[in-house]
């Protein structure tokens, strides 16, 4: 075989090789495009709305939380970002609860809470039971972590009664307003003062945890 023929054969092999590489590239391009199309469709159906410490929160989680809140008679949260932030906070709280091993919640406690919403154990799906269990556990945690240390003074109770309760009661048109000397009224006012103090303590505590945590909420 002469030199010219050898060159033609080598050139033809090179062309065939280039064609093979090009076809492989096309197949790869099609595959990647198909995968991104599938991923794109999946994101529309169940996209990521937040990530907290590597834990992913999706649209499905938001839909499930809305369903749970509706069944438990809790206030609806229509804004996705606001609801995602709530789930972020719940996750951060649960991580803190892990440091308190004696806050177990029994099935009996869960069933008892479900009955308050006219839901039997058989009617409650697993996610709802888990949500109720989580809420009870958080309540126990807040009692141990904060509430037991809140002891309102007589002056704080009187101030709340005079400056908060009485104006609100009169604005609602209440005709007969029990005095603070009434034991039931004093107990109710005291509980309100404790709850507001608890909310304030928890808010400050959560802000500090958020600042030192890796949290991203997507719009």
Tell me what you see in this structure.
The protein is mainly α and 219 residues long. It has a domain at 14-148 and 204-217: Triger factor/SurA peptide-binding fold. It is built from seven helices and three strands, in the order αββααααααβ. It has helices spanning 3-46, 59-71, 80-97, 107-116, 126-145, 154-171, 183-211, and strands spanning 48-52, 55-58, 215-217. A three-stranded antiparallel beta sheet has the order 2-1-3. Strand 1 (48-52) and strand 2 (55-58) form a beta hairpin. Helix 6 crosses helix 7 (183-211). The protein is globular, with a radius of gyration of 31 Å. It starts with a helix and ends with a strand. Mean pLDDT is 83; it is low at 1-43.
What are the key terms here?
7 helices, 3 strands, 5% strand, mainly alpha, globular, 219 residues
Question: What layout of secondary structure does this protein have?
Answer:
Elements: H1 3-46, E1 48-52, E2 55-58, H2 59-71, H3 80-97, H4 107-116, H5 126-145, H6 154-171, H7 183-211, E3 215-217
Give a brief description.
By secondary structure, this protein is mainly alpha-helical. It is 69% helix and 5% strand.
- Number of E-type strands: 3
Helix content: 55-70%
Q: Any idea of the CATH topology of the domain at 14-148 and 204-217?
A: Triger factor/SurA peptide-binding fold
Low-confidence stretches: 1-43
Distance between the termini: 70 Å
Beta content:
5-15%
CATH-wise, what's the superfamily of the domain at 14-148 and 204-217?
A: Porin chaperone SurA, peptide-binding domain
- Helix-strand topology string: HEEHHHHHHE
Q: Which CATH class of the domain at 14-148 and 204-217 is shown?
A: Mainly Alpha
Q: How would the global form be characterised? A: globular
Query: If you compute it from the alpha carbons, what radius of gyration comes out, rounded to the nearest whole angstrom?
Result: 31 Å
**Given the structure, what is the number of helices?**
7
Label the structural class.
Answer: mainly alpha
* Widest beta sheet: strand line-up: 2-1-3
CATH architecture group name of the domain at 14-148 and 204-217: Orthogonal Bundle
Overall pLDDT: 83
Strand count, sense and barrel status of the largest sheet are: 3 strands, antiparallel
